[in-house]
Write a structure and sequence with these properties.
Layout: H1 6-40, H2 50-74, H3 80-93, H4 97-122, H5 124-128, E1 135-140, E2 143-148, E3 157-160, E4 170-174, E5 177-180, H6 182-185, E6 191-193, E7 198-199, E8 204-205, E9 210-214, H7 222-236, H8 243-269, H9 273-287, H10 290-309, E10 312-314, H11 320-324, E11 328-332, H12 333-337, E12 338-349, H13 355-366, H14 373-380, E13 390-395, E14 399-404, E15 407-412, H15 414-419, E16 433-437, E17 440-451, H16 458-464, E18 469-473, H17 478-488, E19 492-494, H18 499-511, E20 516-520, H19 526-531, E21 534-538, H20 543-548, E22 551-553, H21 561-594, H22 600-621
Helix pairs in contact: 1-2, 1-4, 2-3, 2-4, 3-4, 3-8, 4-10, 8-9, 9-21, 9-22, 10-21, 10-22, 13-14, 21-22
Length: 623
């Protein structure tokens, strides 16, 4: 599955990107100059040369489009460029100079926005590659040598020091430590590993050196798979074919053929040539699709603007349709439905110690560690007395030890207490973090994740707007996932998932013709964000999550999601209404024009008047 030419691909991508960047800057300069020329055409001192200024604006902003359109006309290839070229040339020849210029300028603006979104997506490979290690410490006959990670083979022995990335998937054969695996699972709590524990690449070794046996080479390890999944999902994600493109392939050739037939009728039946050519001209004028090519993109741009005011940035108009059509919403847990911070769920004290005292002991020890538990203790009770700790040490994966006021203090899980031959009663939960003073348990806490306030009612609000199902996908264990899932009332919980597993869930939903929104915040979420119909990255999430997503929730407030979906739906309704209205009016005028009933002013009205009404509809009705 891994891309064996990643380095070469990255170099080529970088050079290609630099070339495209230069072209893009030139296009933007020409585009700005074109707008200046259009503006000059309205100044009284230049009105005598208005046509020249507008013609220059059209050529500067749309030279490439016009060239492709004319080439397509000669090839009888009726695509979007062909339709746009005919619209611009027809409007210009009929004296509608400003409209002709606006059509091409608005169209090019849409293209600029789309190109920027594509560029952002292409940067995903470059960013996500950072989770992969470049080197590894290979051990041969007790000699340690640092080598390129590509040289590591299955069965090799490697040493992973504290602070280093896990270079490949491997199994611990000596030592114990804690691993930060948030890049894979999204979970903030470190994972304790010891002999025989299998670990995945992409994590970071936190506390102790470990010697491991390599289970998979770099190409088949977890970090590389995540990189490749993002690459494939981003590049294979089908681009929704624009309505205008589909429409033009049918509409444009039909209109042109009918106009030509109308023009040759008098030569066949010996009728008034001038009258029938005028009919053909009126037919072509009325058929000019300016109302569509202006109002449709404007409706999308208006939708983007309204959505941005609600706290989300969407990368291009093409994504609005997928957002509007969503039937299922899937959430990551940590950092999305929860804040990612821990909080004390339960605090108990006994054997003569009050809660204030045991919190003081716990907090004093935690201040010397890197664990997030200290913050949870501090948040639980504002003022906590900090005590002097002596002989402090951290037992990896188990807990903390120290002496406070000449007393031997232990704070950790059941494995820590077992080491010091302290027996726990059945009354203490298995997930408890216990405090022992001089080998006597005097209290404990249990932790849970802090749920975002806006998460508690999000499922009900999404159901109100017609979302069929709300699910939670997480790398956390089933027990923690169910606790959070029940509190936020999701319909379905899937726990213990790696990025590949999350991707499979999304793909299965898509196979059932569901349109899936996925909301996540971590590197581990990036393949799913890229593959879902509409991926949303939390504003406080990782850079890679933001890059691979279709939208970024800058506000970090998921309670705005129902309102954002409703705005996208309104935008799509306006788009469809404008299309239907334009086609009905044009059908009527085309019919009248073909029979010689419609005068030229009515043909122009069918174009400019309908354009005005559809633009007004786009601006006024999207909220």
């Amino acid at each position: 599955m891994a891309c064996k030419h990643c380095d070469h691909c990255e170099i080529e991508h970088h050079e290609h990107h630099k070339h495209e960047e230069k072209e893009s800057k030139l296009d933007i300069i020409l585009y700005i100059i074109a707008i200046v020329f259009l503006g000059l055409s309205f100044i009284p001192a230049f009105t005598n040369n208005r046509v020249i200024f507008i013609l220059l604006a059209i050529l500067l902003s749309g030279y490439e489009l016009l060239f492709n359109g004319i080439k397509n006309i000669l090839k009888l290839d009726f695509e979007e460029d062909t339709l746009m070229t005919i619209a611009v040339i027809a409007a210009f020849c009929l004296g509608e100079y400003v409209e002709s210029c606006l059509v091409i300028i608005l169209f090019r603006l849409g293209e600029f926005l789309e190109d920027r979104a594509v560029d952002k997506s292409n940067e995903s490979i470059k960013e996500i590659v950072k989770i992969k290690a470049d080197t590894a410490n290979r051990v041969i006959n007790d000699v340690i040598e640092t080598v390129d990670v590509k040289e590591i083979k299955v069965g090799d022995t490697i040493l992973i020091k504290p602070g280093e990335k896990i270079p490949v998937d491997c199994k611990v054969i000596y030592g114990e430590t804690e691993i930060d695996s948030s890049s894979l699972t999204g979970e903030s709590n470190p994972i304790y590993v010891s002999k025989e524990t299998e670990i995945l690449s992409g994590g970071i070794n936190l506390t102790g050196a470990i010697t491991c046996e390599v289970l998979k080479d770099i190409e088949n390890s977890a970090a590389s798979q995540i990189v490749d999944l993002v690459y494939e999902a981003t590049n294979n994600k089908g681009k929704t074919e624009k309505f205008i493109t589909r429409f033009s392939k049918i509409y444009t050739p039909i209109v042109i053929v009918i106009a030509v037939l109308i023009a040759i009728i008098p030569f066949i039946f010996k009728l008034d040539v001038k009258e029938w050519i005028m009919r053909a001209l009126i037919f072509l004028v009325a058929s000019c699709p300016c109302s569509l090519v202006i109002s449709v993109p404007l409706s999308f741009f208006t939708g983007l603007g309204k959505i941005s005011k609600k706290g989300m940035v969407i990368k291009g108009t093409k994504h609005i349709e997928n957002l509007a059509g969503a039937t299922v919403v899937a959430f990551d847990k940590t950092g999305t439905l929860t804040t990612g911070n821990m909080k004390i769920d339960k605090l108990e004290s006994f054997n003569g110690y009050d809660k204030k005292m045991i919190l003081s002991y716990m907090y004093s020890l935690e201040l010397l560690s890197n664990h997030p538990i200290g913050t949870a203790i501090k948040n639980y009770s504002g003022e906590i007395e900090e005590k002097i700790v002596e002989n402090y040490k951290e037992i990896a994966g188990h807990g903390l030890y120290g002496k406070i006021e000449e007393k031997e203090i232990l704070f950790g899980n059941s494995k820590l207490l077992e080491q010091y031959e302290i027996i726990l009663t059945d009354e203490i939960p298995q997930n408890a973090i216990c405090l022992a003073v001089d080998k006597e348990v005097v209290g404990y806490i249990t932790l849970t994740e802090e749920i975002r306030k806006e998460s508690t009612n999000i499922t009900n609000e999404l159901k109100k707007i017609g979302i069929k199902k709300v699910i939670m996908l997480t790398g956390d264990n089933s027990k923690n996932a169910e606790t959070i899932g029940k509190e936020v009332n999701v319909d379905e919980i899937k726990a213990g998932l790696l990025p590949q597993d999350k991707l499979l869930v999304i793909e299965e939903l898509k196979k059932r013709n569901e349109k899936v929104i996925f909301v996540g915040d971590g590197i581990n979420d990036s393949p799913v964000l890229a593959s879902s119909n509409f991926g949303i990255a939390m504003g406080a999430g990782t850079n890679i999550a933001s890059i691979t997503a279709d939208g970024i929730l800058i506000s970090n407030n998921i309670s705005t999601l129902p309102s954002i979906i409703k705005t996208a739906r309104r935008a799509m309704k306006v788009v469809k209404a404008n299309i239907i209205f334009s086609l009905i009016i044009k059908a009527i005028v085309l019919t009248l024009g073909g029979f010689g009933i419609a005068p030229i002013w009515l043909a122009i009205l069918a174009d400019t008047g309908v354009t005005f009404l559809t633009v007004l509809n786009a601006v006024k009705n999207i909220k």
